[in-house]
Design goal:
The chain is α+β, with helices and mostly antiparallel strands. It contains 13 helices and 21 strands. It has 3 domains: about 1-95, no CATH class; about 110-195, Roll (Pdz3 Domain); about 200-335 and about 350-370, 2-enoyl-CoA Hydratase, Chain A, domain 1 (Alpha-Beta Complex). Helix content is about 30%, strand content about 25%.
Length: about 425
């Protein structure tokens, strides 16, 4: 029997994130069952009156409800209700939810490509994932979904709403959305697809500045960031922008690995809960790829959990300047407790803290420089100044240099992404100051 328990312990995969649970050791329910209750004080502490009330309600429903209800259904409903009363991130995972959780962390799953939660009976879009059908169709963070095709969302559980959003790749679903700033509800048609998320992307901006985008923290995201930066550093980059906007979180170890890429010592994050095994500390190693380049981290209201771990660590260690908007504020740790082979309990067991002891829960990371997500339109009615190069027969500059812009110049970056434009400008200023 002990061998079986050990195998279960080895198979435990615990995650942290906005949708994903956290990395922290805890005993499984199967392990607890093996140890009979021997402490008399534990027996005395049982809420006997409440258990009698539960039994009474159970029997009344069994005997008097208008339709027969089997014991298993009643008990599973009771489990869901018991967990539902705790906090938004604890959950009773049935086979489908347990499978979906594993698909998320592997980076491949079916659906629309949005992270969602419930708010006032409706589905709130936390963030659309990069390069997915939802993002391409125009779904935005903060959107409130009120209908899925002809089905009203109000009255449905989150799992029921998610089930309606799933379907065969190529099939369509019509989302009715209430969006702040819009007078009328929007109708957005999204074509379902198999979602294969590439969690890390990168490119050079102005030939000298590395831009690294992490859309969520998957198992291999740390290795991917390392690989992208190694490739970019072969071009003698002067600074780095790490974009964590609309990143809902993911695997804790990936957050630690990414923090370690930019830090050569010190604490990255620690967790604290009621159980001794809930207290863990994660520190940087000396194996640092980018120890001293100027760095800006972009965050916004869709940056949650593991994103906040990285941003908080780099902020507390004064390794990077945090720019953008305040983050989501999801600073709790979830543990997966397997119940059976295909069911599990996702339970909030601790809070996590930045190196300086700040709890991010319900507060978030405040950027060092607040930059709203603005739309910039260049004025075309200003004076058009004549330049020397416009004069007929003007002299060459004698340096043999033309006026051709580099191919990868982000000429219209301010119009396309104002926050990134400001981040690059800040990096340029830091480079000038360091000279």
């Amino acid at each position: 029997m002990k061998d079986a328990v050990n195998r279960k312990s080895l198979l435990r995969t615990l995650f942290l994130g906005f949708v994903f649970p956290a990395l922290i050791s805890a005993p499984t329910l199967a392990e607890e069952k093996e140890e009979p209750v021997q402490n008399v004080e534990q027996v005395k502490s049982l809420p006997l009156d409440e258990l009698r009330l539960f039994t009474e309600v159970f029997q009344r429903i069994k005997n008097a409800y208008v339709e027969p209800v089997d014991d298993a259904t009643l008990l599973e409903d009771a489990l869901r209700g018991m967990i539902l009363g705790l906090d938004p991130h604890s959950a009773y995972l049935e086979p489908k939810e347990f499978e979906t959780l594993q698909q998320h962390t592997s980076g491949e799953f079916g659906g629309l490509g949005i992270e969602v939660g419930m708010e006032d009976g409706f589905v709130r879009v936390i963030t659309p994932i990069d390069d997915t059908p939802a993002q391409r169709a125009g779904v935005k963070a903060g959107d409130l979904i009120t209908k899925l095709d002809e089905q009203a969302v109000q009255g449905l559980s989150l799992n029921e709403a998610v089930d309606l959003m799933r379907g065969k790749p190529g099939s369509k679903v019509l989302l009715t959305i209430v969006r702040e700033g819009e007078e009328k509800p929007l109708e957005i048609e999204v074509i379902r697809d198999v979602i294969q998320v590439a969690s890390v992307k990168s490119r050079l901006i102005d030939e000298n500045y590395a831009y690294v985008r992490v859309s969520q923290f998957q198992v291999n995201s740390g290795k991917e960031v390392h690989k992208h930066l190694q490739r970019l550093m072969g071009q003698e980059i002067k600074g780095v922008v790490l974009d964590l906007r609309n990143n809902p979180g993911g695997v804790l170890q990936a957050a630690v690995d990414i923090g370690d890429i930019f830090l050569d010592e010190g604490l990255i994050v620690y967790t604290h809960g009621r159980l001794a095994e809930s207290d863990q500390r994660f520190s940087a190693t000396s194996k640092t790829l980018v120890p001293d380049l100027p760095m800006v981290v972009l965050i916004n209201g869709g940056s949650a959990s593991a994103s906040e771990i990285v941003a908080g660590a780099l902020q507390d260690q004064e390794r990077a300047i945090i720019m953008g908007q305040p983050s989501f504020g999801k600073g709790s740790v979830q543990t997966i407790l397997p119940l059976t082979q295909d069911r599990a309990l996702k339970l909030t067991t601790a809070r996590y803290y930045t190196p300086e002891g700040r709890s991010i829960q319900a507060q978030g990371i405040k950027p060092d420089i607040l930059v709203e997500d603005a739309e910039i339109k260049l004025r075309n009615n200003g004076p058009q100044f004549l330049k020397e190069s416009d004069l007929s027969g003007h002299l060459d500059n004698g340096n043999g240099e033309g006026s051709v812009k580099p191919e990868n110049s982000d000429e219209h970056l301010a119009e396309r992404d104002y926050q990134l434009y400001e981040a690059v400008n800040l990096l340029k200023a830091l480079v000038i100051v360091q000279k």
